[in-house]
Amino acid sequence: MNNSVTNTARLLGASLRALLVLTVLTGVIYPLAVTGVAQALFTNKANGSEIKADGRVVGSSLIGQQGYGLKYFQPRPANGLGVNSVNTQYKLVLSGATNLSADSKVLLKQVEDAKAKVVKDNSVPGYAVKPSDIPADAVTSSGSGLDPAISPQYAGLQVHRVAARNGLSVAAVEKLVKDHTEGRTLGFIGEPQVNVLELNIALKDLVAEQ
Amino acid sequence: MGPVLAGVLQLLALIGALALVYVPVGGYMARVYSSDRHLRVEKWIYKAIGANPDAEMTWPAYLRGVLAFSAVGVLFLYLLQRLQGILPGSLGFSSVDPAQSFNTAVSFVTNTNWQSYYGEQTMGHVVQTAGLAVQNFVSAAVGMAVAVALVRGFARSRTGELGNFWSDLVRGTLRILVPGAVVAAVILVACGAIQNFSGIHEVGQFVGGSQQWNGGAVASQEAIKELGTNGGGYFNANSAHPFENPTPFTNLFEIFLILVIPFSLTRTFGLMVGSVKQGYAILATMFTIWLGFVALMMWTEFAHRGPALQAAGGAMEGKEVRFGIGGSSIFAVSTTLTSTGAVDSFHSSFTGLGGGITMLGMMLGEIAPGGTGSGLYGMLIMAVIAVFIAGLMVGRTPEYLGKKIGAREMKLAAAYILVTPALVLVFSAASMALPTPPHSMLNPGAHGFSEVLYAFTSASNNNGSAFAGLNANTDWYNTMTGLAMLFGRFLPMVFVLALAGSLAGQKPVPVTAGTLRTEKPLFTGLLVGAILIITGLTYFPALALGPLAEGLA
Predict the structure, then answer these.
(1) Which of B322, B344, B470 should one mutate to test binding to chain A, selecting the residue with the greatest count of A CBs within 10 A?
(2) ipTM over 0.95
């Protein structure tokens, strides 16, 4: 009995020492080494791909933002985003999805409302949006709630409104969207996308030039 | 090019990349676990541990090592969270409450990485890097160690010796996981994943004002999270978060990281038992199931059945534009057919059948290709059972890889495959029967039941993904999923190591004309059939109440 207690204690001691050594290696040296390399080689990316406009940081090219006025291109809905409920000395954005199911009445209503809003917002004199033209990404929330991109179809659908509200020609705004459309990586990886923040920065610049 | 074709091409590119590294990675891992030589740093580590890496262990000794190391891991991680409030480098975050700390500690030590917490508001730098990320490495290394011990059981004869746990643990971490993770992390940063210690800081917004964002050692954690089939996200949105998975390429790359070790381990297995063809047969079984599941998932997601998805015109709810439906489908299948549980899109908003596919993937026992190590040993257990069934059909004593599958071996294999279904079904039933646990469901009806079934399937199989609408941060779910994870991880390991010991003690049976040729396609077919039938019979009633009811409505 005494023997087995001693053996167990010895084994637990060995386990603890193993854990501590491996913690130093994988929990201290590894992340610090990767951080060192990352900061040296890819400073901007390692720090969140922040982008500046008019001399101030206006966000990250990777993180979608909400709250653009109708002068600007609209992002995807983000009904799954939250705010923090603990450590409330900070005001943090909690990434997340709605997790509503395909047969959820709540989700169905969100989609229908979003669809009606896209039609209403984007139909301008001489250009009527048909509900069947609206791509799925325009009326659904993304997985992170921070999707930085919209599909080229959704961007294209907003062109007339954006042109009208900014006093620009439709052709000029169409060109802007085209310039900011990123195709699939190597032609087949992922889906074509338009980065909303970058597009809106370019739009603002274009308006300022006029 | 349409999205379906692009999805298929991504799948082919992924398969090509996995095929390219199969021989070198599988061979390298076989050398790591077979080599007599110790690196200098390893010798130093063994000295610090106070263990002799050359001392062979019998199965009880090996098991004691696994259990002691894991128990210390749970305690350490628990205390780290409980003390977070007074630890420096923790962003001033408060300590995590006891039930959630227990759940999270168990979750990461068991390679589950179920998360009942929101990463960005709960865990500071110290817990993330020195606690959670460490278990990402060592829990994966423990899984590989147990798998290698079982392989040695098949490969060795007339001995009870299965190798040395400390040596397998340290080598798996140092020689396989750390180098792989370093390379992967740098690639992820190069594509935009963040890697800094800037903590919470203000970032300006386009419309004016600012937001508070988390900085952190994300890329280094993301790399081992996928490579070690862990799955615990730095952020709540996991691999859907652009800082964890910034581009279409990183999405495909992360799927590759998830699959590379589990698939390549079949080569390691083949080399160690002296017949790479035996490894190919296991690989073919894993690959067939995985590919079939991906095809089904793409079909149902592109078809987007379900009222809300029909209204939207596509199954984009919970999915990111940059990955699309094709990339998200491949990720979802790969994460649930392994023990990963990372998500780049939210399974709860998949079509009813799509959600069912993710659940069924876990219910198969995560063996196609399964978690790092746990996939291989789970699949070998199924192979033992398939051999036994074949033996019954022809009235011959079954044997596998030159070892007799007798009463003792079958009892251990049967016990192994009964553990997780028992945990899943009992805990799910209890959660539905008791008055308060159902309150955690977000969606009503069949989908609500699926949320609970998914939670216990995920926990018991050490997956960690979720139908995340379920509010799992309650005492009931924190405690019960915690227990499910513990039992679901370590009871099977007991049976695997006992089986390994029993096999290693046997003398080999010579191959005769009557031996079932387990390296042939016929056996692969038998094995796929056995897996699907056993799982189907076990779970069909529960699946019928949840995802099937929703998907066929």
Answers:
(1) B322
(2) yes
Residue of A nearest to B120 (CA): A94
Which whole-number Å values give the CA distances from B461 to B113, B152, B291, B453, in the listed order?
A: 11, 24, 21, 12
Residue at B63 is within a domain: no
Considering only CB atoms, which chain B residues are within 8 Å of A108?
307-308, 311
Q: Which domain holds residue B390?
A: 377-551
pLDDT attached to residue B513: 86
The confidence score (pLDDT) of residue A3 equals 80
Q: Which residues contact A66 (CB under 8 A, 6 or more apart)?
A: A75, A78, A81
Q: What is the pLDDT of residues B30-59, one digit of tens each?
A: 999 999 999 999 999 999 999 999 999 999
Which H or E run contains B422?
helix B407-433
pLDDT over 70, % of chain A: 99
Evaluate if pTM is beyond 0.95. yes
User: Hey, which residues 6-25 in chain A have their CB within 8 Å of chain B?
Assistant: 8, 11-19, 21-23, 25
User: Are the C-beta atoms of residues B445 and B88 closer than 8 Å to each other?
Assistant: no
Chain A and chain B share a number of CB contacts under 8 A equal to 396
Contacts of A3 in chain B (CB under 8 A): none
Asked whether residue B517 is domain-assigned, the answer is yes
Q: Count up the domains in chain B and report the number.
A: 1
Whether residue B505 lies inside any domain: the answer is yes
Say if the Cβ atoms of A188 and B50 lie within 8 Å. no
Mean pLDDT, rounded, for B126-142: 97
* Backbone region of residue B96 per phi and psi (left: phi > 0; alpha: psi in -120 to 50; beta: other values): beta
Specify if B436 maps to a domain: yes
With an 8 Å Cβ cutoff, are B93 and A87 in contact?
A: yes
Of B134, B185, B468, nearest to A22 by CB-CB distance is B134
In the stretch 157-176 of chain A, residues with CB closer than 8 A to chain B read: none
How many other β-carbons are positioned within 10 Å of the β-carbon of residue B453? 26
